[in-house]
């Protein structure tokens, strides 16, 4: 028996060939096919990382946010970028994907603008676009906190580079504080970190009241890419905390530069991947299946579009529950067809990337 597996010249189609001899054990055939599938998966991951996913923010004055949004939207379209970008008078916050060359042009152009000269891009490779659409929107804040009176350019927690954070985090006089929401830290967090029972970042100020007993500690805040910590750490200082720090570049940068050591679980991300592997040193699964309780870090959206709860559900329960998180959702009229991924891309519904632009 012989088994072969590969790609066509354009690497867009998989082909499998095998010759089976009568009497050859079928279990061995299955094993060979499995090994070939694993080999191909590795080949694809190595060969086809043609895209980049960029995560970034910059607190900087933008005098005419609406005009900037219009110009920036067209610029992103010219580079075939997709993603979500928020523009406000206080700065810019975005995560976009595109071909490597296009992303390089995007980063170079932003850094050449004096307003964004200090921008810090978190860069990850990807085999495809991380988004289906491009949205550039103007909002009151680049991350919704309700702390509109705080300007991180004037006062914020001390920035720690990943290596500095790694060195400090295990000290007895340190509190590691996760400022993200429940659905984010339930799938992954730093070892020994204190997490908060918040649904949205705008709930953070109310929770600070519960942290009074830690005022004599060095508080090390962290989030996905660093942006939430800018205002969270500033607010802690405003509330009387004396020694406040923030992980510069967040979990993503820590994973890139320090291998993610002691980050337990996966990192929730805001693109099509949903979760990202961070820890290449001592990885650990901390989440459990929402349905059966088995150890699991596979995040899905409930198939019931009305519920759409974002929780870990294992492969077995995914198929058994048809992608639903409960018996009620399984029988719901709005339950979507389950394809095994638990990811339901929004319909394009006539999406027009130029819609709303004031083109001349």
Describe the structure.
This protein is an alpha/beta fold and 360 residues long. It folds into 4 domains: 2-47, no CATH class; 51-138, Alpha-Beta Plaits, CATH 3.30.70.100; 158-267, 3-Layer(aba) Sandwich (Oxidized Rhodanese, domain 1), CATH 3.40.250; 287-344, no CATH class. It contains 10 helices and 17 strands. The chain has helices at 26-47, 65-78, 100-112, 162-168, 182-185, 204-207, 227-238, 250-258, 315-320, 327-330; strands at 2-7, 14-19, 51-59, 82-88, 91-99, 122-126, 134-138, 158-160, 174-178, 188-190, 218-222, 244-247, 263-265, 267-268, 275-276, 299-301, 310-312. The chain has a 5-stranded mixed sheet with strand order 6-3-5-4-7. It has a 4-stranded parallel sheet with strand order 8-12-11-9. A two-stranded antiparallel ribbon has the order 1-2. The chain starts with a strand and ends in a 30-residue tail after the last helix. 37% of the residues are buried. Mean pLDDT is 88; it is low at 1-18 and 41-45.
């Amino acid at each position: 028996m012989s088994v072969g597996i590969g790609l066509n010249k354009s690497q867009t189609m998989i082909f499998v060939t095998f010759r089976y001899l009568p009497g050859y054990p079928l279990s061995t055939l299955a094993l060979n096919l499995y090994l070939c599938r694993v080999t191909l998966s590795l080949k694809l991951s190595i060969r086809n990382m043609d895209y980049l996913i960029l995560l970034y923010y910059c607190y900087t004055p933008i005098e005419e946010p609406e005009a900037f949004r219009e110009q920036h939207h067209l610029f992103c379209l010219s580079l075939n970028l997709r993603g979500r970008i928020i523009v406000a008078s206080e700065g810019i916050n975005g995560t976009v994907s595109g071909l490597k060359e296009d992303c390089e042009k995007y980063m170079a152009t932003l850094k050449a603008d004096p307003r964004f000269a200090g921008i810090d891009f978190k860069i990850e490779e990807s085999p495809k676009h991380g988004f289906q659409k491009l949205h550039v929107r103007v909002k009151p804040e680049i991350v919704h906190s309700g702390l509109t009176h705080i300007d991180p350019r004037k006062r914020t927690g001390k920035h720690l580079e990943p290596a500095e954070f790694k060195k400090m985090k295990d000290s007895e006089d340190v509190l590691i504080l996760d400022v993200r929401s429940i659905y984010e830290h339930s799938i992954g967090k730093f070892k020994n970190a204190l997490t908060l029972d918040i649904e949205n970042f705008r709930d953070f100020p109310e929770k600070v009241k519960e942290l009074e007993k830690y005022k004599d500690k060095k508080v090390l805040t962290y989030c996905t890419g660093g942006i939430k910590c800018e205002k969270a750490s500033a607010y802690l200082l405003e509330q009387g905390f004396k020694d406040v720090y923030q992980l510069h570049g967040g979990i993503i940068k820590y994973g890139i530069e320090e291998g993610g050591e002691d980050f337990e679980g996966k990192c929730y991300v805001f693109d099509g991947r949903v979760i990202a592997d961070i820890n290449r040193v001592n990885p650990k699964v901390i989440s459990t299946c929402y349905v059966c309780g088995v150890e699991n870090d596979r995040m899905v959206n409930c198939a019931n579009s009305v519920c759409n709860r974002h929780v870990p559900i294992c492969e077995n329960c995914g198929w058994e529950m048809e992608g639903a998180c409960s018996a009620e959702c399984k029988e719901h009229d709005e339950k979507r067809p389950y394809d095994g991924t638990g990811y339901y891309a929004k319909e394009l519904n006539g999406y027009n990337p130029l819609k709303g632009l004031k083109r001349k």
